[in-house]
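Re: that chain you flagged

S.,

Sorry for the slow reply, it's been a week of failed gels. I finally had a moment to sit down with the sequence you sent. For the record, here it is as I used it:
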Amino acid sequence: MMSRKSSGRMPRRGRNWPLPGAMRAGRQERRVKPPSGSNGTKYGYYMTFLLGIIPFLLVISLIVTIHELGHFSVARLFKTKIERFSVGFGPVIWSKRDKNGVLWCLSALPLGGYVKFAGDEHVSSMSPDVEELEAAKQAIREREGPNAEKAYFHFKPVWQRFLIVLAGPMANFVLSIVVFAAVFMIVGKGMEPGTIMALREANGPGARSGLKVGDQFVRIDGREVKSSEDVIMLIRMRPDEATPVQVRRDGQVVNLTVTPERRLISSVSEHVPTYGGVLAVAIGDGKPRTPWPHEALWLGTQKTIGVLDTTLTYIGRIFTGKENGDQLSGIIGMTKATGDLTAEVASLKATPGQIAFNWFLTMLQMAAFISVGIGFVNLLPVPVLDGGHLVFYTYEAIARRPLNAAVQGLGYRFGLVALLGLMLFATWNDLNRTGFIKFFGGLFS
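Prediction finished late last night. Pasting the structure tokens below so you have them in one place:
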């Protein structure tokens, strides 16, 4: 909130709180054994968790930096005064001031970041009300001269402030598109997504439903299939549900009804139990080819939209009672997944150079998935997130005045509680997967 002492200092923008991560979709359905609870399993979990810490910090730092550069770039476009660009929170371990007076910082806790606009001394991101704006304007003019306030964020036209805030999440989506496009150009892309390459079980749920090798999924439960991951995720989210599907077979569209079986599955590690629908079929994209750059960008856009669509579908199923939210993951789960992927790549029988290159591609893809999730969560209309600011600026544009500071304060308190609650829920899921909750509860039973 603006100081009542009329210091002319502006609230901070661009803070990113640690957010729950996106789920990684596997290429193939894989049934695994449940964790045995043995010491080997337990130690294996912790070892891969430790292995994932540094790679995860690198991934999250990349995502945060791109997000904040989105805010920063558009703010600079509109000639907004900026004091600091920070990757991470807490003590500054490195800093450098550029010719425009911006202090670039790397801080000790790389799980967030912020862009600090000129005059900011508050953690709150609330917009000042009319009285506070007027007091700030006078203080700035006395200190810096006539019209000096026009360089400050809260004195920019509301449409410019809207675009500055929107630029952060949009930068996350652009990052995902570019990364997916680059991966498609490197490894190629099959042009027949959702094709059944093999029946893993002769009498499995897919075979019993009438699916055949060579069938290409067109629609699942009315939703268009654009990738093999679409098939896996749409089937996975419909365990024990009779689901109408359309497949292309010998050039003809065939209508079928499949019932995925609810099974223990895992797309990353046997130590992280996950339940979902399974058809017991191998899904692929057909023979890959290298797309042209414009094709790769379009495929990257489709991939990003697909990840976003899957996220929205999953959240919708939580609210309709079809999912319980146990697949939401937080910092612990994302770190563990990063370690699993690192261990998986390291176990490949290949040269060190090939292993390093595969690890690099794997981390890039993980960054793209998480970046979509962070961009989406930041757009939620919750105060303290970018989406909450966009709601406030929309109100200001319609009402021709900022929202009352007291109302904003209540909104921020609610938003902070909601965000912390979501983080705690995701962390609870992560701890449940480790077996820690069961172990700790057993001490008191």
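What I noticed first: Confidence is low (pLDDT under 50) at residues 1-43, 267-272.

Talk soon,
D.
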